[in-house]
Amino acid sequence: MEDSMPEPPFEFLSRKPYMPPLWATHLNPIPSHIFSLGHFPTPIHKWNLPNLPKGTEVYIKRDDLSGMQLSGNKVRKLEFLLAEAVAQGADCIITIGGIQSNHCRATAVAAKYLNLGCYLILFTSEKLVDKDPGLTGNLLVERLVGAHVDLISKEEYASIGGVALTNILKERLLSEGRKPYVIPGGGSNSLGTWGYVEAVREIQEQLGKGSGGITFDDIVAACGSGGTIAGLALGTWLSGSATKVHAYCVSDDPNYFYDHVEGLTDGLQAVVSSRDIVNIQNAKGLGYAINTTEELTFMQEIAKATGVVLDPVYSGKAAYGMMRDMAENPRKWEGRKVLFVHTGGLLGLYEKTEQIVPLVGNWRRMDIQASIPRQVGTGKVSRNFYRPM
User: Fold this and answer.
1) Alpha-carbon distance 93 to 109, whole Å?
2) Which GO terms describe its cellular component (predicted)?
3) What CATH number does domain 74-187 carry, 3.40.50.1100, 1.10.230.10, 1.10.10.10, 1.20.1410.10?
4) Does the pTM exceed 0.90?
5) Looking at the DSSP assignment, which residues form a beta bridge with residue 219?
6) Which of 4, 32, 71, 101 is catalytic?
7) 211 has catalytic annotation
8) SS3 34
């Protein structure tokens, strides 16, 4: 009955039936519906990175431009996850992540778009867990849109686990008469994996429209919870593309993610070994969401050279790992066309401002002589503009 209703006048925030790519129709289960939450397709353009190996060209897929408050790779997963939540009659969403989780911020905003409550479990340091978390970066957006925030320590998260913690909150809300829907950290379950299976179709359609015959030899992205890489790798393999998918993990280690990605694809009844469809390398450095001066300096240099601002937790570390690999193994990359997927997360930069301040010193007080006469011209500002009332 619901499917026979007239289509809404605007596609954004609409719920519509989902039709998978032909090469993915044998996967199971196939989502029945999808919510339009992002601005797709996101652009692809040449990325003029310095010091590339001979003949190497890098392009960038701007998933950081998939929306405003909802920007980043998490939106693609949420389009499927929230469609299921609404279909099941949920009135609120539960999810979990780090104190500056991009996924939690995107979930909080998307939930409010769809008139759903949102409950976030955020882990932070033992020293800060009993204090007001503040309004920096993603937290500002989450708290502005009215998400409920429960803080736990990193140690509690490690010992209890995300599944148990979200179940505790789910049972509490059920006892209060609510109808919660739980989304795992990063939106990375088998259903969320469809977000980047669909992104592969989007990339292929973009390559078929005025790309000048460009094909990509490699796709590179950060790996933080596994869903993005699972979708990219599975979609690329299913579509019969010869493109190699590379992941730079920013938490845990490659062996963990090989197992996790395979678990996600197994959940879609895709008979494939993760090690056959993706190459995963370690790029976590000092640890998840912890940056070295070298990593932040690299990000500043890339922004200054290309205008592309990377986030410090995901794409910044992945690009740093990719460029380091290119410098250490140039023959591996020579002459290849590489697509780097920028997964967003720029609000995470606000937590790094103290580390970044020494890297950016390009400001000064303008030197103005007191005797310069005032000139009137276009774009003038009235003298009364700055006078007190």
Assistant:
1) 11
2) mitochondrion
3) 3.40.50.1100
4) yes
5) 245, 339
6) 101
7) no
8) strand
